[in-house]
Amino acid sequence: MKINISKSLEDTNKLAKNVLANLGDKKLLLLQGDLGSGKTTFAKAVAQHLGVEDVVTSPTFTLMKVYKTKHKQFDRLVHVDLYRLDSVGVDELVELGLQEFIDDSKSLVLIEWSERLEKKIENSIQIIFDIKKDKEREIVVK
Amino acid sequence: MLILGIETSCDETSGAVLNIQENKITVESQIIGSQIDIHKVYGGVVPEVAAREHVKNIIPIINQVLVESGYGMHDIDLVAVTRGPGLATSLMVGFEFGKTFAFTKNIPFVPVNHLAGHVFSPVLPIVGKTRKLDIKFPFLSLIISGGHTELVLVKNYNQFELLGRTLDDAVGEAFDKVAKMLGLDYPGGPEISKYAEIGDEKAFDLPRPMIDSDDFNFSFAGLKTAVLYQLKKVKITKKIKQDMSASFQKAAVDVLVKKTFKAMRKYELNHVVVVGGVSANKFLRNNIQTQANVENITLQLPELDYTGDNGAMIALAGYFQYKNNENKQDYLKLAVDPNLQLV
After folding, report:
1. Phi, psi (5° rounding) for residue A14?
2. What are the structural domain ranges in chain B?
3. Residue B10 and residue A96: Cβ atoms within 8 Å?
4. Is B287 strand, coil or helix?
5. Same fold, B2-126+306-333 and B139-302
6. Whole-angstrom distance, CA of residue B343 vs CA of residue B340
7. What is the pLDDT of residue B332?
8. Cα Rg, chain A, nearest whole Å
9. Which stretches of chain B score pLDDT less than 50?
10. CA distance linking residue A138 with residue A1, whole number of Å
11. Could you name the CATH architecture of B2-126+306-333?
C-alpha cells in the first residue's frame, strides 16, 4: 500500500504514470472516492499515458466508454463509471458488456465508483481518493 | 410515408410513429418508457442495468406505439434506429429489433446518429399535431444533456461539423451531481431549477470555466468541484440549497450562452437550436431567448416531449437520411457503434 498526496494535475499525472509502470500482471484499476475527489482526472491522465487521442470525458451517463490506445501492451482503454448503478454483480458486468473486456488481455479496464461492485474483482489494483483540502487529494494505491 | 423510430442508446426505451406527407409532418404516436420513476426511489441511481430493461420493454412499447398510431405493422414504410453513440449493450437491443422488423417486412432500415436526432428535434410537433416541414441551413446546434455538451454546425441534412464539446463532464451531469451534493431529489436538473427560482444567484462566487477560451469547448468538472469546496464551508440549509442552485445554474448558463453566441458571430449564422434534456431548463430558455432577441437571431427549442431521448427525433433524422440517399449499405451486416461521430 502506498499513500500519495496530489496537489496538482502534474502530481496526478506522475502518479498515473507510476501506476501504469508497476501494473505487473494486473490490468484492472478500481477507483473509489467521493464526487470531485479526482477520479476522472486520474482516468484522463491514464488515457494520456496510454496514448489515447480522443477527448476522454466522464462516462457517468453512458456507464462505459472505450478508447483506442497507442500502447505496446494494451489496444484499448475501457473507462467505466458505476455511479448511477445501485449494486453491480456478475450478471450486471455481463450485461454492461464489461466482462468480456475484463477477460481480454489487450484491454486496460478502469472502473470509477468501484464501491458499487458486489465483490472485489480479483487481480486488481485499488486506488482510493480522498479530499484533504481544496486542491489537495490523498490517493492510496493498494 | 410512415416511419417507425426506435431509440435505446441510454436509459429510455422509446418508439414513435411519424407520418410525413408532402412536407407536412405528424407525430402519430410516441412512447417513452422512462426509468425516472424507478430512479427516484433509489435517489438517482439505476437499480438495474438499462440493457435488461430495454429487452423487457422493447416489444410492449413498439406494440403499444403502433396501436396508439392507429396504423398496423404492415403500414410502416421505413424503420429508423439509433446506432450510436451510447452503451453497446443498450444500443444493440433497439438496433437488432429494428433490423429484424425491417427484414421481416422487407422495408428499408436506416441507422441513425443519436445526436442528429437531437439536432432536428425542434421541427417536431407535439403528438397528434401536424406541422410544416421547413428547415433552412446552415444553423448552429447546442446539444446539452446528461451525456452530451456539444456545439455543432449543421450545414445540411447530412453534413455536420463539431465546433466544440465538453472536455470532462456534460452539463446535465453537473446539474445532477450538484443536486446530489445539495441533497436534492432525482432527477437533479428540474430540482436545481425549482430551488433556483427563489435563490440568490450572486450568493456564491463560482467560476465560469473556459468562458473566454479561444475555442468552443466547455468544462464543467471544475464548476462542480468549486460548488463542493463552497459547500464544505457552510451548513446546508434550505436557503443554502436555493442560493447554491441559483448561483450554480447562473454560472453554467452564462458559459453556455456566451459560447453559443460567440460561435454564431464567428460563423455568421442567424439561426440557432438548443436541444437535449437540459434544453428543458426554464432559466436557460429565457436567457438564451433574451440574447437571441438582442442579437436578432432566430432561436428554436424543441417541445418539452422531445428534449429528452425519444423515438420521434430518430424517425425524423432517419427520414432525412433516407431521402438524401445515404447509407444504402447492406444493413444486415451493420452493427451498433458506441463511439459513432457526427460528420
Report:
1. -65, -40
2. 2-126+306-333, 139-302
3. no
4. helix
5. yes
6. 9
7. 84
8. 14
9. none
10. 13
11. 2-Layer Sandwich (3.30)
Q: What is the pLDDT of residues A39-87, one digit of tens each?
A: 999 999 999 999 999 999 999 998 999 999 999 999 999 999 999 888 8
Question: Could you list the residue range(s) of the whole structural domain that residue A134 is in?
Answer: 2-141
Global confidence as pTM: 0.94
CATH of domain B139-302: 3.30.420.40
**Cβ–Cβ of B87/A40 closer than 8 Å?**
no
Task: Please give the grid coordinates belonging to residue B170.
Answer: 456534460
Residues of A with CB under 8 A from a CB of B: 35-36, 40-41, 44, 54-55, 57-58, 60-66, 83-86, 92, 95-97, 131, 134
Question: How confident is the model at residue B179, as a pLDDT?
Answer: 96
- Tell me the shortest Cα–Cα distance from A67 to chain B, in angstroms: 9
Q: Identify the three-state secondary structure at position B100.
A: helix
Chain A residue whose CA is closest to B218: A57
What is the least distance, in Å, from the CA of B86 to any CA of chain A? 6
State the complex-level ipTM.
Answer: 0.91
Substitution target from B10, B35, B87, B96 for chain A, most A beta carbons within 10 A: B87
* A141: alpha, beta or left? (left if phi > 0; alpha if psi -120 to 50): beta
A-chain residues within 8 Å CB-CB of B221? 36, 40-41, 58
User: Which domain CATH number covers A31?
Assistant: 3.40.50.300
Q: What's the structural domain count of chain A? A: 1
Q: B167–A95: do the CB atoms touch at under 8 Å? A: no
CB contact under 8 A, A61 and B10: yes
Distance CA A136, CA A116 (A): 25
**CB < 8 Å to A55, chain B:** 165, 167
Nearest to A96 among B89, B165, B339 (CB): B89
Q: Do A62 and B86 touch (CB under 8 A)?
A: yes
Residue type, B206: L
